Amino acid sequence: MRDDDRVSHTHRLVYIRHGETAWSRIGRHTGATDVPLTETGIAQARALGPVLAELELARPTVLVSPRTRAAETAELAGLTVTAVDPDLAEWDYGDYEGRTSEEIRADDPGWTIWTAGAPGGETGEQVAARADRVLARARAAMADGDVVLVAHGHLGRVLTARYLGQPAAFGQHTALLPASAAVFGDDRDGVPQISRFGLVGYAAAQYAGR
Fold it and tell me: Closest Cα to residue 128, out of 94, 159, 90?
């Protein structure tokens, strides 16, 4: 993100990760596979509704990933989807789709998505390019109201990094719980900031998933 791309504004950007799925609960990398929410994920998404109500969103534009788990989370949380944005799809895990990190490292010791990307899938730089496109569209829409993005874990962590002007790998220093919301904005000088992070409507301390 270039400094001249940053525009001070009064509206907010809210990022939401979808609720729990059977794959996300155990850490299976879920990119293109359209895995539905579990009953727990449905409850998590519904519990996010009151959290979003407290934010008092102004004329929100709601963009979601092509995966149905994102749109379902948005609707359960009380949002009305404006459009599907293909750039909000999760990291393309390629050959590692459906595998846990532990399974991958049995064949590829020391692997992390942040340092090596995904063979047959995307690099961090490619995901960052998608996040930059999403942010550019979001900034344009923020002239008219708040913008809500509903998507995935790794994509959201990369988007957080890019909002702060950092490389994709900075995302490894953040964490997004299922059905959690983060609020982004700018200070008076147009400096991008995270104003709230990890907002959930359930007892996160008792959640054992990923």
Answer: 159
